[in-house]
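Something for you to look into today, if you have time. Could you write out one complete protein record for me, on any chain you like? Leave the record below and I will have a look.
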Amino acid sequence: MSKHFFGDTIVLLGRSLRHITRSADTIITTTIMPIAMMLMFVYVFGGAIRTGAESYVNYLLPGILLITVASGIAYTAFRLFADMRSGIFERFQSMPTARSSVLWAHVLTSLVANLLSLVVVVLVALLMGFRSAAGVSAWLSVAGILILFTLALTWIAIIPGLTAKSVEGASAFSYPLIFLPFLSSAFVPTDTMPGPVRVFAEHQPVTSIVNAIRDLFTQQPVGNDIWIALAWCVGVLIVAYAFAMNTYRRKIS
């Protein structure tokens, strides 16, 4: 690793963040869909859904947070694809910069942008009646899970961002990730689902992550869900990172 890696990454991170501030519509766009979904489910369908929770927005919010991240990382793939097509990578490689710093700048930009979107969604949820008596440690635990989840999905996004042949191809991979929470405990309890769907819902990663966040918000014992959630996030992060870095090395070699 180059001795200039951290300095180069910070400089390139500043460049990417400036691009976001100049087009704030990207953050607005990534928050509009989750907020609209939250409004629709709480105020249109909420009265017909029985979850056992006092407030449906309290039950719903963890899943909406994951959907926010899933919709946000599509822009990570898009920004990376745009840089690949513009030739900026080749220009940076001709300069005395650490090779991986360009990629890490995109990853950290994704993390910052998604955290901003998550904050906006939580603020809207508070206006809609979301309440939690969780302490600082529980909120920090939720933040840690969401950061790991964001990093895992971001490294997945890096792969199509490097390999896609079109803008549509770079961002289309996020659609299944956005849909995955619908087949989990994010919107309704899994025990209300028919057999095969229930089996899938109870054993896919989103359910464990949603359940862990929900238990932290409600100050319930998290049990094994938090360890399963962390295992999924870390496992996906490691595998996606390995594939992304291998793809990146092939692209710039």
